[in-house]
Design goal:
five-stranded mixed sheet, membrane, signal, mainly beta, Beta-barrel_TonB, transmembrane
């Protein structure tokens, strides 16, 4: 095992050393302007930065700062991230454009401790793990739950915020490891247009448009659009055809009452990479471009997301806001994955690898002798979310003590249907288990359509719905000029019901339930102490809780009883610094998250609330400018995850107690840096490192560690810029995502790829 750098030593050096510098920086000029285009003013094109904290903007070019000092989540009770007693990583549009990011998964790679995973039942949509825990239903859109199973593009986003740790007091159920909040682009009072065109060496062509138009005195409209077509990766069968439109109008900008109406409309028809199965405890070592689906496989998605926000300032110290969201997602899937590795026995019958001898790919059984049994992943899903939140924020004093009190009501309705389907074929005329489409050589892409004699058969139809209500209050109490206390409570009511068409009569021996109802209530808490001896220093400790009902994802096709909610507790202690005139932000924290009542699978397919999972660790991050020309963004996370109490079969097979939770690497790190010469030429690059992780909770399938190196170069002018991005410079073979199904699969990442981007501003 490779020797690791001592985490405590690294953190002490990062967190303690800047304290003296922070003391000196407090008297300097405040931070550079916000990245929000509405706050950006034209500058003299020939002017140079006069001081370190000033960023010169030529023409109408938006701010290019990677640093963000303010969050958008109203419920945090503090706009300044220095006043938030939790780790928050903000990936803004400047960083995403520098890296050429187009997908939400690629954006959140910039938050250490975040990994790419998969939902139960297959790789549908954006599925992310935070601090070792699934965040499938912990993705938000402007602070509202965005739980649909779809692939998320960033064309309509201004930034992405990753809030670490349990946060049910702020968001209701979920958020064991943290939440991801997508912040959409908002209209502002300035005419601006930006057009973009991109092309990659894989054959992907993408265009975007972002047009902002003010009208009358205090109103503005903004429209973002996206279209892309071509091959998304060096892996075969990854073609996409996508387009999206995001219109938004904002009325009464700068007046006591502001109204924002917005929508995101998307259509996608993609081929999805379902990864490779495992062999001998590792992902199958097939050529990196190999795909085991058929040419006519597809994942087709339609998304309609509608939002309204009304904000009214009652007085200088009190305002009220009401936000409503409607999201509908339809996902139609006919996909084929490589499920199991084997070989052909007598009569060309498929024999699973577990029955082989000497089955190492390049010894007893060379890759050319191995075959893959293909599985159908077909379904049609409809997701609907309706949510309304009303919040009142007031600032007042009780004697010498100041208060920032937030009170709110959250009402929501969700529904979900899933029509499962399957295709069953043969392997050289030999019967295969239900849902197995065929067999194909392990070292080659199929390169054909689904056999014409393979019919689609309807399977289980699952339907579910849920009602929820939350009542919460959070107070930020200013005890002394340098001392604050944060305290919050939230009470949630969550009632869900599910039904399955299979086994309607609850036949003895079947683990599929015909129907199930559940009602849960839960009280979540949040508390923290913040000590700020100067405006450039913040030291904090915090405690927070969250809960996960057993029907949280509105899915259950196995014997799930009325289990109590999983309850999660998190503690965190950290520091935040601002250096160089507040142009460089540093942060670090140590934390521990424990999940109690974790659902563990029994041998008969049912579940019991007997599990306990703990992830403890540390993280550090940085963002901003070291000099006016040199920007940096990055961080490191150390995760020590363990299943304290898990599954223990009597025969010793499938034990999980004492194992590491799947998709929880011990070390993750990232760095992105750019340097600009004469405000015209930019060069930069960075890396993403993900340590070794497991593809299942029994730790029998190991996904190797990897380091991916990317580069960028740009030529900038007031009206346009041209950027080159190079991804995976050394053509490293690495596994991007982890899928727990079929014993543990892994999705191979794209090889060496180049992308050219032209941005034009009017």
């Amino acid at each position: 095992m490779a020797k690791r750098v001592p985490v405590k030593t690294a953190l002490v050096g990062l967190l303690v050393a800047p304290a003296a510098m922070a003391q000196q920086d407090t008297a300097q000029t405040p931070a550079s302007p916000s990245a929000d285009p509405s706050q950006t003013q034209p500058a003299n094109p020939s002017a140079a930065p006069a001081t370190m904290q000033t960023v010169t903007v030529t023409g109408s070019r938006p701010s290019e700062d990677f640093q963000v000092t303010k969050g958008s989540i109203n419920r945090l009770g503090a706009a300044n991230l220095m006043d938030v007693p939790q780790s928050v990583v903000v990936i803004n549009r400047a960083l995403m454009q520098s890296q050429g990011v187009t997908r939400l998964e690629d954006a959140v790679r910039n938050a250490p401790g975040v990994t790419i995973g998969s939902a139960e039942g297959g790789n549908i949509g954006t599925n992310i793990n935070i601090n070792g825990f699934s965040a499938r239903t912990d993705i938000y859109l402007d602070g509202m739950r965005d739980r649909g199973q779809y692939y998320r593009d960033v064309f309509a986003l201004e930034q992405v915020e990753v809030l670490m740790g349990p946060s049910s007091m702020l968001f209701g159920r979920g958020s064991t490891g943290g939440i991801i909040n997508q912040v959409t682009k908002k209209p502002f009072l300035k005419q601006a247009t930006e057009l973009s065109a991109q092309a990659t060496t894989n054959g992907l062509v993408r265009t975007t448009a972002d047009v902002n138009t003010p009208f009358q005195e205090n109103n503005a409209a903004r429209v973002s659009a996206m279209f892309q077509v071509g091959k998304a990766s060096t892996v075969d069968q990854t073609n996409v055809l996508d387009f999206g439109l995001a219109p938004t109008v904002k009325l009464g900008i700068g007046t006591p009452t502001e109204i924002t109406l917005g929508a995101i409309l998307q259509h996608r028809k993609d081929q999805v990479n379902y990864g490779v199965p495992n062999l001998n405890g590792f992902p199958l070592n097939a050529p990196r471009n190999t795909a085991y689906g058929f040419n006519d496989d597809y994942t087709e998605q339609d998304v309609i997301a509608l939002q309204s926000l009304v904000e009214h300032k009652i007085s200088p110290n009190m305002n009220i806001r009401n936000q409503t969201e409607f999201v509908w997602v339809n996902t139609a899937v006919r996909e084929t994955s490589g499920g199991f590795v084997g070989t052909l026995g007598n009569g060309n019958r498929f024999v699973a690898a577990s029955n082989l001898t000497g089955n190492t790919p390049y010894s007893g059984q060379p890759l050319g002798n191995l075959w893959i049994r293909q599985l159908s992943r077909d379904r049609n899903i409809n997701d609907i979310t309706v949510e309304n939140q009303t919040e009142v924020l007031s600032k007042f004093e009780t004697g010498p003590v100041g208060h920032t009190l937030l009170m709110g009501i959250d009402l929501n309705y969700e529904s979900y249907t899933n029509q499962q389907m399957s295709r069953t074929g043969t392997c050289f005329g030999n019967a295969l288990p239900s849902g197995s489409v065929g067999c194909t050589p392990a070292g080659y892409t199929v390169g054909a359509n689904t056999p014409g004699n393979v019919a689609t058969v309807l399977g289980n139809y699952a339907s579910s719905s849920a009602w929820g209500a939350g009542f919460y209050a959070n107070d930020t109490i200013q005890l002394l000029p340098e001392l604050k206390v944060v305290a919050g409570l939230r009470w949630d009511y969550y009632a869900a019901q599910i039904a399955n068409s299979v086994n309607r009569n609850n036949t003895a021996g079947s683990t599929t339930v015909a129907g199930l109802q559940q009602t849960d209530t839960f009280l979540s808490v949040r508390g923290g102490i913040i000590y700020e001896p100067t405006p450039a220093q913040s030291y904090y400790v915090s405690y927070s809780t969250s809960f996960n009902p057993s029907l949280e994802q509105l899915t259950s096709t196995t014997g799930t009883q009325n289990l109590p909610p999983e309850n999660n507790k998190g503690v965190e202690a950290g520091v935040k610094y601002e250096l160089f005139g507040s142009n460089l932000s540093l942060n670090g924290a140590v934390f521990s998250i424990i999940k109690n009542n974790a659902r563990t699978a029994n041998p008969d397919g049912t579940f019991s609330p007997t599990g306990n999972v703990q992830v403890s660790g540390a993280r550090a991050g940085f963002a901003g400018r070291i000099t006016p020309e040199w920007q940096v963004f990055g961080g490191y996370a150390y995760l020590n995850g363990v299943i304290i109490q898990g599954l223990n079969y009597q025969n010793g097979q499938g034990n999980t107690t004492g194992k590491v939770p799947l998709n929880t690497p011990r070390d993750t790190a990232n760095l992105w840096t750019t340097y600009t010469f004469k405000e015209t030429y930019e060069i930069g690059g960075g890396f993403f490192y993900v340590g070794q992780r497991y593809a299942n909770n029994t730790n029998t399938v190991v996904v190797p560690a990897y380091t991916r190196v990317d580069l960028t170069a740009a030529y900038k002018q007031p009206a346009y810029d041209v950027r080159l991005n190079v991804y995976n410079l050394f053509n490293t073979v690495y596994y991007d995502g982890v899928i727990a199904s079929d014993g543990g699969r892994a999705v191979v990442g794209s090889g060496l790829t180049g992308m050219i981007t032209l941005n034009y501003r009017l």
